[in-house]
Each structure stands twice: as structure tokens, then as C-alpha cells.
């Protein structure tokens, strides 16, 4: 079985991959994640997932199997990036209140000449949130490094009215259903 490397510093992605019981290393890609002009949120997620995997593949042994992923949140065509601060997280969640936000979670598996990639699209309907609910949530979960300013794997789930997705792990950051299929295609037993 090839050596598996996750090209991400995300603790959520690491936790998701841990569910599979695989031995893997973590090697964050550290790439420029700026959006190109005229690039849609979906295109941005796909490009970043591929670039992260390629960046790490270039510095790992050639036989390593690399998993890259990126998530972009979108509302009205605008990208909701990682807020970074309490104030920006509160502003993002205020904008999401009572609205639908689309999350594009791209993944890429590279192994020697093999390349497989795709995008999971999840729509999240936020319930109407009060300022107090938003502030209390942000102070509790501190989602400053999360697109959309919440952690679905934690208290953030209480902010939602509904979720539509083909893969519930996509919203957390790594669509395991498709990633597992790609790993099996390379002979990885899960």
C-alpha cells in the first residue's frame, strides 16, 4: 500500500481521514489561496485542491499517494472566506442568517500517474439568527479559520435549518465517500 499524505493543516480534515483507520502523514501545502479574476467559487475550490495536492506531491517520494482538498463558501456569488477575527465571523453569520449558503468542497487524489478529483456541493439553509445567538456561538466555537464562520462538527450545527448534500462529510471539509472510492481505485483497503 502506498504511503498516504494529507496535503492540509486542517484538523477537521485530519479527523475525517482518521475515521478510515488509515496510517497517513500530514504535509500542509502552504499555497497562495487568492481568487483569480473571473474565477467562480466552484472553480476556485477545484483549483486550490489540485494545487495543494501537486505542491505536496512535488516534495514527497514519487510513490506517495497525496490527498488535497479545499472548501469555498458562496453566498450570492460572493466567497465567504475564513473570517480570521470575531468581528468578521459575526458579520458573516449575520449575512447568512435566514439564507442559503453553498459550500464547494473539492478533493484531489494523486498517485504516480493517477489523478482523480471532484467537488461535493452542499447547500446549507441557515435559520433566522439573533445577534445574541450569533455572538454566543462565535465565542463558544471560535470558528475563525472556517469558511462560513461555523464548525458543523461542533455547535455550528445548531445554526442550521437544513442541509442538502450527497456526502455529509463534505461540509466538514473532506468528502469521504468520493475520496474512499479514489483510494480503493489505487488499491487502498478501507
Quick overview:
With 190 residues, this protein is α/β, with parallel strands linked by helices. Helices cover 30% and strands 26% of the residues. It starts with a strand and ends in a 5-residue tail after the last helix.
Structure in words:
The structure is a single chain. The protein is an alpha/beta fold and 190 residues long. The chain has five helices and seven strands, in the order βαβαββαββαβα. It has helices spanning 11-18, 41-57, 86-96, 131-141, 176-185; strands at residues 4-6, 24-26, 65-75, 78-80, 100-111, 114-126, 160-164. Strands 1, 2, 3, 4, 5, 6 and 7 form a seven-stranded mixed sheet that branches. β3 and β4 (78-80) form a beta hairpin. The radius of gyration is 17 Å and the shape is elongated. The model has no long low-confidence stretch (mean pLDDT 95).
Amino acid at each position: 500500500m502506498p504511503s498516504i499524505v494529507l496535503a492540509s493543516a486542517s484538523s477537521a480534515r485530519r479527523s475525517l481521514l482518521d475515521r478510515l483507520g488509515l496510517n497517513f502523514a500530514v504535509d500542509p501545502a502552504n499555497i497562495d489561496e487568492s481568487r483569480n479574476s473571473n474565477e467562480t467559487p466552484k472553480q476556485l475550490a477545484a483549483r486550490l485542491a489540485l494545487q495543494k495536492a501537486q505542491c505536496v506531491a512535488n516534495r514527497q517520494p514519487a510513490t506517495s499517494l497525496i490527498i488535497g482538498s479545499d472548501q469555498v463558501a458562496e453566498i450570492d456569488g460572493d466567497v465567504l472566506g475564513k473570517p480570521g477575527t470575531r468581528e468578521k465571523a459575526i458579520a458573516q453569520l449575520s449575512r447568512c442568517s435566514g439564507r442559503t449558503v453553498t459550500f464547494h468542497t473539492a478533493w484531489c487524489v494523486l498517485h504516480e500517474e493517477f489523478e482523480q478529483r471532484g467537488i461535493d456541493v452542499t447547500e446549507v439553509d441557515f435559520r433566522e439568527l439573533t445577534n445574541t445567538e450569533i455572538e454566543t456561538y462565535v465565542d463558544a466555537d471560535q470558528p475563525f479559520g472556517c469558511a462560513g464562520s461555523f464548525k458543523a462538527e461542533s455547535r455550528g450545527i445548531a445554526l442550521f435549518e437544513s442541509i442538502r448534500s450527497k456526502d455529509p462529510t463534505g461540509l466538514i471539509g473532506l468528502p469521504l465517500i468520493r475520496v474512499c472510492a479514489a483510494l480503493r481505485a489505487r488499491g487502498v483497503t478501507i
